[in-house]
Write a structure and sequence with these properties.
Structural class: alpha+beta
Number of helices: 7
Shape: globular
Number of strands: 15
Helix content: 25-40%
Distance between the termini: 20 Å
Largest sheet: 7 strands, antiparallel
Order of helices and strands: EEEEEHHEEEEEHHEEEHHHEE
Strand order of the largest sheet: 10-9-13-14-1-4-15
Radius of gyration: 17 Å
Strand content: 25-35%
Length: 255
């Protein structure tokens, strides 16, 4: 597989709170092209900016998840391992003075020979099918919950990025609704943080994903469009393409 990754610190921010994990490599505030094995974990973690310790939380979870590749492929076992990471984040956050440190997480997690789509929070995964994107995840946000309840006016007055589920947050119950599902077959996968999809609609994302051959430039064009639409948040864009001759992890920086 080939992964194109761009993680960019938000406008005026001192530290990037987004972390992308590809295999054993955590990436933040960087731009890289990677050749990866089909058994490498690839995910986006968005540290919650409203809580102290967002960078700590996203990097902590990413670092711990990369050690799961040799775990048993059982779904319940994976849930328990992720729950252990969540509990450790809360303990470690308290010890470091970040009692409410929190992060989202979305992506492919490999355990044994099984790939799972893991999702919590409002980072997103899309599969590119022809010229169209299919959203594979559902945002865990107050906004989305109100929409599902039919409370359109209330939803319009809520903050789109106020999440209802996450790793950490000082409360173990916030982790309970994590989604772990079998990963459907895909040829191209797109992962984004809310610094992208809160500002760019799916139609524009589809145009950006299908206008040219996929590359780091595609990621940069998505970042540019989000910023032009008003995003000041950290931005993560990951494009994963499957191909027959992928092997290992090779890092080729493209700036």
């Amino acid at each position: 597989m080939i992964a194109f990754v761009v993680v960019q610190r938000g406008v005026g921010k001192e530290q990037c709170e987004d972390t992308v994990l590809v295999g054993d490599m955590p990436i933040y505030d960087d731009s890289v092209k990677l050749s990866v094995s089909t058994t490498n974990t690839i995910c986006v973690a968005d540290g919650v900016g409203g809580n102290a310790g967002g960078h700590f939380a996203s990097t902590f979870v990413a670092e711990r998840i990369k050690g799961l590749s040799d775990a048993e492929p059982d779904k319940m076992k994976l849930r328990q391992l992720l729950n252990d990471i969540n509990n450790d984040l809360i303990v470690e956050g308290n010890a470091k003075g970040f009692p409410t440190a929190a992060t989202t997480l979305t992506g492919i997690v490999f355990t044994g020979n099984k790939e799972r789509l893991v999702h919590i929070g409002n980072t997103r995964a899309y599969a590119l099918q022809g010229k169209y994107l299919k959203q594979l995840t559902e945002d865990h946000t107050v906004y989305n919950r109100l929409l599902k309840m039919g409370r359109i006016d209330d939803a319009s007055q809520s903050r789109k990025n106020e999440i209802t589920n996450c790793f950490g947050g000082g409360n173990a119950s916030l982790f309970e609704n994590i989604i772990i599902s079998d990963m459907q077959e895909f040829s191209t996968l797109l992962l984004t943080s809310d610094g992208v999809h809160d500002y760019i609609g799916i139609n524009e994302l589809e145009c950006l994903m299908t206008s040219n051959i996929l590359s780091i430039k595609t990621c940069n064009n998505i970042v540019k469009a989000a910023i032009e639409a008003g995003s000041k948040d950290d931005i993560s864009v990951v494009i994963v393409q499957k191909q027959e001759d992928s092997y290992g992890i090779q890092n080729e920086k493209e700036h």
